[in-house]
Amino acid sequence: NTGRSDVLIEGDVAEEILWLDDLHELLKQLNALPAFIGGSSAGARTAMRFYVRFRKDVRGLLLMRVTGGAFAAGRLPENYYGAFIKEAQKGGMAAVCATEQYQERIAANPKTRDYLMAMDPKQYIKVMSNWQDQFIASTKMEVFGMTDADLSSISVPTVVIPGNDQTHASANGKIAASKIPGCILHQLPIKDQEVPLINYTEWAPYEPEIAQTFIDLMRKAEARPKGQAAAS
Questions:
Q1: CA–CA separation, 42 vs 183, rounded Å?
Q2: What is the distance between the alpha carbons of residues 70 and 208, in angstroms, rounded to a whole number?
Q3: Which residue in 52, 113, 175, 204 has the fewest CB atoms around it within 10 Å?
Q4: Looking at residue 146, what DSSP letter applies?
């Protein structure tokens, strides 16, 4: 449901769980397993949950801008689901298609409009509401989507680079790093800002440092004897 991919609004499983199986199947078809899995924000959640689901296929985790806390718990469900549910309730699928997010998807993949317009608004609302409920349940954890037991089970080399806005406060990254055995916490020379979201493009000056941090982690993992537990 992003970029040029086909849109699919169906199923009882949480959207962020569906991503895990899709990613695993993609990497499997590319003969790229085991792999280093990483991402920012939702991508970081995906990486951590991918480990829980497919731990034998993960060589290491590269995590940025970890989400957690009351602000993100209040903001993200509305941004991901609530706003679109309201549009469908007010104006049906035509109103959904008119939103900025779906206009971007339609421009990238024109078939998206046909798919959405063919949907019964009631079915769209039903699926999106279920996804919203499951996402809200995941925000009850300090690190969204991950229990303390999940975090403590991570035994591959891991690095966390905290964010610096209210959705990705540095505290969220520090909490995650403290609960993952042997995790490396790498803090960029940035300070938290009282803004809902800092666009990732604003991190452009730090991209060389981010890249080197991830490269160092991957090289460390490659040098580790097989079967050895992660160590700080």
A1: 19
A2: 31
A3: 204
A4: B
Using an 8 Å Cβ cutoff, are 144 and 68 in contact? yes
What is the per-residue pLDDT across 60-102, written as a single tens digit (0 to 9) for each?
999 999 999 999 999 999 999 999 999 999 999 999 999 999 9
Band the pLDDT of 191: cuts 50, 70, 90.
very high
Distance, CA of 58 to CA of 37 (rounded, Å): 7
User: Residue 73 in 3-state DSSP?
Assistant: helix
pLDDT of residue 231: 44
Distance between CA atoms of residues 13 and 11, nearest Å: 6
Q: How many CA atoms lie within 13 A of 58 on its CB side?
A: 24
Give the single-character DSSP code of 1: -
pLDDT value, residue 5: 86
17, 23, 68 from 214: Cα distances, Å? 25, 20, 22
Which residue matches tokens 């480990």? 51
Convert 144-176 to b/e letters by CB count within 10 Å (16 or more is b): bbbeeebbeebbbbbbbbbbbbbbbbbebbbbb
- Is there a contact between 125 and 27 (Cβ–Cβ < 8 Å)? no
Which residues are within 8 A (CB) of 23 and not within 5 positions of it... i.e. 6 or more apart? 37, 46, 50
